[in-house]
Specification:
498 residues; Rossmann fold; 26% strand; 6-stranded mixed sheet; 17 helices; 2 domains; 33% helix; alpha/beta; 22 strands
């Protein structure tokens, strides 16, 4: 299958998202689509698959003009889109999610659970993963749910597969398995559009790269004829000489201490660490090691069986997120869509949500103060939107992430927990987030960052704590931390006999 998109334009109200974009997708090739958040990548793919209607331009499939009424029609034609934001039903089982709307039936018209189980087991085996098909999706990690979305798409026998940040929440092993599958699909003639901000992945697996910027297709080149610096320059329209800005904050006294924290359901045990004023402590480890669960326990989302939290020398009993907020602890979760934002609320409503009581005067919300507050944070974080009244669900993934950050910066936190803060965020916005973290550290905020991106852990952290199977495997200061040492600890190994 060959797809040609010519001069595609699209506006949402006064916001012109696409301004005449060209893209060519060929069977048996991996075509990387790159650009900053808000460049129009996802919108272009949504137009191809019938979710949005183009304003102008032309789509040719094998030389014939073709448009789809909806994504289901595109999928039936052989074009499948794995979205960055998960399209799953958390209260249903893994098996039900895989076959939702296309259940296998017996001759009597009943749901054929046996046949579906066999097909799902075979598909999982192809991906090299094992999973309980009867388990409720809400009990799985974001990474596991992402693998289900990928499995679902592969089960449609797609001729063109669009992947939007497919590895953002996957472990190293899951990524390796996925790349094996992608290579197999490519060799069988499947065309793949690969949207990612991870440069090393793009140069590892893609054949061609198209760069988009501000709704335009800037350039298309064979991957072997370009390099990272050139791609970044095309993406942002300027040089980014250093991904990780220099950290200038002075590290002060201990602000926050966690002592002997143990999960009520066995996810982790005997976790003890501290964070100082102006310090960024990175938490590393393999997917499922318990990093996110530790943070949820600290924040009062999940129950703990034991443990003591000390903030500025005083012991704190925290059993809910509301108590954490009241004590000046913010938590940017890895799942921004379900836990970090109210998608059908405005930017302003989301930003002011944790601090709404501060805008109440004489029983009424002081709208002007709230407007000024949200406007200030929107400008400071360079959130790309028409105004603070824009609906958050209409923003790109990176700009949604900035809204979550703005929300927590607004409480004036003493401690800020960031779980995968740059997941699905482009290279330009990543640097802005790192710079913001540095500025918060300079103000004395104690920052805890969970990240699966090892270069990010090494580039941002003052100290690295490595988690292995729910326990602290080791701790490394910035000067001694390397990818090899972190991975050794993360996989249960030891360093220097310790």
């Amino acid at each position: 299958m060959k797809i040609e998109m010519k001069g595609i334009s699209k506006a949402f109200g006064s916001n012109e998202v696409l301004k005449g974009v060209d893209l060519e997708i060929t069977g048996g090739q991996i075509h990387a689509l790159m650009g900053e958040n808000g460049a129009g990548k996802s919108t272009l793919m949504n137009i191809l698959t019938g979710l949005h209607k183009k304003d102008s331009g032309q789509i040719l499939i094998d030389g014939q003009e073709k448009y789809f009424a909806n994504p289901k029609e595109a999928e039936e034609f052989g074009i499948s889109f794995i979205h960055q934001e998960l399209n799953t039903w958390s209260e249903m089982s893994v098996l039900d999610n895989l076959f939702l709307g296309k259940e296998a039936k017996t001759k009597l018209g009943l749901v054929d659970t046996k046949k579906m189980t066999q097909e799902a087991t075979a598909a999982f085996a192809q991906l090299g993963i094992t999973m309980d098909l009867n388990r409720e999706l809400s009990q799985l990690s974001v990474g596991q749910q992402q693998m289900i979305e990928i499995t679902k798409a592969l089960m449609t026998n797609a001729k063109v597969l669009i992947m939007d940040e497919p590895t953002a929440a996957l472990s190293e092993k899951e990524i390796a398995n996925l790349f094996t599958i992608i290579d197999r699909l490519k060799k069988s003639g499947v065309g793949i559009v690969y949207i990612s901000h991870r440069m090393e992945e793009i140069f590892q697996i893609s054949d061609e790269i198209t760069v988009m910027r501000d709704g335009l297709s800037i350039d298309t080149v064979p991957t072997g004829e370009t390099n990272v610096d050139e791609v970044v320059r095309k993406m942002v329209g300027r040089e980014i000489s250093d991904y990780y800005p220099e950290k200038t904050a002075n590290i002060g006294d201990t602000v926050f201490t966690v002592s002997h924290l143990t999960s009520a359901v066995g996810d982790y045990e005997d976790i003890s660490f501290s964070v100082k004023s102006g310090e960024i402590v990175g938490f590393s480890g393999l997917m499922g090691a318990g990093r996110t669960e530790i943070m949820r326990g600290i924040y009062g989302i999940d129950k703990i069986s034991s443990g003591v939290l000390t903030l500025e020398g005083k012991e704190k009993k925290i059993h809910s997120p509301a108590q954490s907020i009241a004590n000046g602890i913010g938590f940017l979760t890895e799942d921004r869509k379900d836990e970090g934002l109210i998608l059908d609320f405005s930017i302003e409503d989301n930003i002011s949500l944790p601090t709404i009581q501060e805008f109440v005067k004489h029983g009424f919300i002081d709208k002007k103060t709230e407007d000024d507050f949200s406007e200030l944070l929107m400008k400071r974080l360079l959130i790309k939107a028409q105004s603070t009244q824009d609906v958050v669900g209409d923003l790109s993934g990176g700009n949604q992430q900035k809204v979550v950050l703005a929300k927590w910066i607004g409480i004036g936190p003493k401690v800020l927990i960031l779980d995968e803060p740059t997941r699905g965020v482009d290279v330009g916005a990543k640097r802005e987030i790192y710079q913001l973290m540095n500025e918060l550290a300079e103000r004395g905020v104690a920052i805890i960052m969970v990240s699966s991106d090892l270069p990010e852990i090494l580039g941002v952290s003052d100290r690295v704590i490595v988690i292995h199977e729910g326990k602290i495997a080791g701790e490394l200061v910035k000067q001694e931390a390397t990818q090899e040492k972190i991975m050794t600890l993360a996989t249960g190994g030891t360093i220097n006999g310790k």
